[in-house]
Specification:
292 residues, alpha/beta, TIM Barrel, 8-stranded parallel beta barrel, two-stranded antiparallel ribbon
Amino acid sequence: MKNIGFRAHDFGTFSSVEDLGKTVCQVRSPSFIQLALGKVIKPSRSWQEWDEEYISGVRDTLASYGVSIAVVGCYINPVHPDGEKRKENIERFKTSLRLNRAFGCPVVATETGSWTPDISYNVETYTDKVFTILLESVEQMLDEAEKNGCICALEAVSGHHTICSVERMMKVLDTFKSDHLKVVYDPVNLVPVNGIRELDGSYPARASAQAQRKFYNEALDAFSSHICAIHCKDYVLDEKGFKKGNLPALTGVFDWENFFKELRKRDINVPVLLENHNPATLSQTLSALDKF
């Protein structure tokens, strides 16, 4: 059985932590989740009202069902164009870092946003100005992580996010060189909008195993030692040749079987979190992935 868990809000929203714990443990027990508390528990306290007693209560309730937290999802916009909103975003992330022991989880993760409040595409996102703002935000978050002995984790997303490539992620890692700064690696997130480039320069609907191996090995070569978690989902190209990238694992064209072989070869043993999974077919997905 592989080290596979779940993004909690893919199961839906719940009226209580108990209901979430019951649902997850029916699929796999013991198990672990990525938890974005406000997305999955309705109602839950706002982040400004979180304290150790409240968060440790969430942790203990989940634990009573054999569920632990592998990643605290705190997906903010660290380059929000409004300085005050950006400051508020960073403070929310820092609150999760300060409460890492109450969560029972040292990893707090975010994507890297864009120069648009709703994180949609903006050509300004890729300017030196916005990259400098990102570094300033990461510095603040990383300082809090170091103070609290936990992990600030960044996730790259191709297309419209500030960190949209392996190279830009490495610029951040090389800037700080801290053991408290890690990477949540989602290979499908880094697939370009027109898919994985084939060795002959074409972009077929399903790239060859060789082309896919080249694609993900470039990322693993660059930051494998920094990876603290992996996201697992799938993608296809639509009829116009554009990526549709939020599918359950094994329902698209990504070569997860050979990807897992590469992880074993490199001795990368970190939590793998299913994203966009379909609860109705989750047992079949897990059975298939466990064979890889």
